[in-house]
Design goal:
The chain is an all-alpha fold and 79 residues long. Helix content is 52%, strand content 0%. It has helices at residues 3-20, 40-54, 60-63, 73-76. The chain is globular, with a radius of gyration of 12 Å. The mean pLDDT is 93.
Length: 79
């Protein structure tokens, strides 16, 4: 894994941590969002935070594919 990937993943986990108030060391890429207590309203707030943090646009079609933290990675990578 490259340093850029690690930075992206860590920044994503920190963004989720801030939004959910769950310590970042308790969140992994394999964590289901439901286990973080994220409901539909908090999911929208989380997506808004991610879009700002990574300067990306996540469509509703993309949102429907997000179940785990790792599902967000391809949506925020600027490759």
């Amino acid at each position: 894994m490259t340093n850029k990937n690690q930075n992206t993943e860590q920044k994503l986990i920190e963004t989720i941590s801030k939004q959910t108030e769950i310590p970042s060391d308790e969140i992994s890429l394999d964590t289901p969002l439901g286990e973080l207590g994220i409901d539909s309203l908090s999911f929208m707030a989380l997506i808004a935070s991610i879009q700002v943090a990574f300067d990306v646009k996540i469509t509703s079609k993309d949102m429907a594919k997000i179940y785990y933290v790792k599902d967000i990675i391809p949506l925020i990578k600027n490759e």
